Amino acid sequence: MSTKKKKNQKQFTKDLENLLYAHGDVETPLPDTVNCLEDIMLTYITDLCHSASLYSRTTRRAKIKVDDFKFVLRNDPIKFNRIGELLLMNKEISEAKKQFDDKEGKSFDKVANNMDDYADDFDENTVANNGGGKKDGTSANTTENGKKPTAKKDENRPKRKYTKTGKERKPYKKRAKKSDLLATSSSVPTSSGGSAL
Q1: Measured between alpha carbons, how far is 42 from 75 in angstroms, rounded to an integer?
Q2: Is residue 95 situated within a structural domain?
Q3: CATH of the domain at 47
Q4: Tens-digit pLDDT profile for residues 45-89
Q5: Based on the structure, what is the number of domains in the chain?
Q6: How many Cα atoms are found within 13 Å in the side-chain-facing hemisphere of 38?
Q7: Rg for the chain (alpha carbons), in Å?
Q8: What burial class does residue 12 get, using C-beta atoms within 10 Å of its C-beta: 0-12 exposed, 13-18 middle, 19+ buried?
């Protein structure tokens, strides 16, 4: 069997050129210098990952965790402290993203979903309290004394009904029975043309 050594793909060439320039080398360093530095870096990272993998196997874990790398680098204080700084920075960034998502993204979805409820409450309160529009400047979801309605008042409010197409049904008005109309009309006295003087 012939063993072929895999050609290492030069993945970090541009990054290493910038790193060398930042540390005082010329703007375009020699390709041999960049290739040598990349080989050294890849060897170091590979050895570091293998030693972290060995430590994770001794603790009977199949996956490598960040703590495994911390354990491997515990004797090198500069690299160990740099790991701590990077982890702290990563935590701060993730918390900032989380706050941004909570305030803007997720809360906005909740507000958008509840907009119909707020609009319905506004319509009901303005029509019921002022005959179509609020003129006193109070909020739409407040009662006459300025307090928000309680859950009991919400339970007493009639539930809205919808048709199959999603349109709101108009409330059904009860009509008076004919017998009720006749009874009320017979009880009303009529004038027979005579005067009571």
Answers
A1: 21
A2: yes
A3: 1.10.20
A4: 999 999 999 999 998 898 999 999 999 999 999 999 999 999 999
A5: 2
A6: 19
A7: 40
A8: middle
Q: Is residue 137 scored above 80 in pLDDT? A: no
Structural domain of 107: 85-128
Residue 55's pLDDT is: 93
**DSSP calls for the chain:** -PPPPPPPP--SHHHHHHHHHHTT--SS--HHHHHHHHHHHHHHHHHHHHHHHHHHHHTT-SS--HHHHHHHTTT-HHHHHHHHHHHHHHHHHHHHHHHHIIIIIIHHHHHHHHHHHHHHHHHHHHHHHHSS---S---TT--TTSPPPPHHHHHHSPPP-B-TTSPBPPPPPPPPPHHHHHHHHHHS----S----
Within a domain: residue 18?
yes
Report the candidate in 134, 109, 110 with the shortest Cα–Cα distance to residue 121: 134
pLDDT of amino acid 114 = 55
Of the two residues 6 and 168, the one the predictor is more confident about is: 168
66, 109: one domain: no
Measured from the Cβ of residue 16, the count of other Cβ atoms closer than 10 Å reads 19
Instruction: Please tell me which residue, 185 or 12, carries the higher pLDDT value.
Output: 12
Alpha-carbon distance of 17 to 26, in angstroms, equals 9
